Amino acid sequence: MKTQTALILGLIFALVIAVFAVINVDPVTVNYAFGSAQWPLILVILFSVLLGGLAIFMFSLFRTMALKRQRKELARQNEQLKKELHDLKLEHRERRTPAATSTRLAPDGDS
Description:
Elements: H1 2-23, E1 27-32, E2 35-40, H2 41-96
Antiparallel strand pairs: 1-2
Helix pairs in contact: 1-2
């Protein structure tokens, strides 16, 4: 459901951008660091949206990679702690149960 909602909202956003860009077709002057050029406003809008989407994609990609790395590390730590807990339980069980060679005293004090 969440994916469908995100897809529908993305399509609506793309439609709004497309309509906005088609309405604005007048040529504008775009100034670069080394000069300027005349571009149709529709191309400037679409290029800006494309660069914004690319930037968001790159940030989310880096975040996803960091979260995957963190998940791997936590899974490794979890397995290590499970092994440690298992070893401690075995050690505790061995201390609580008497050894087979030990002798128990009878209730009246006789062996």
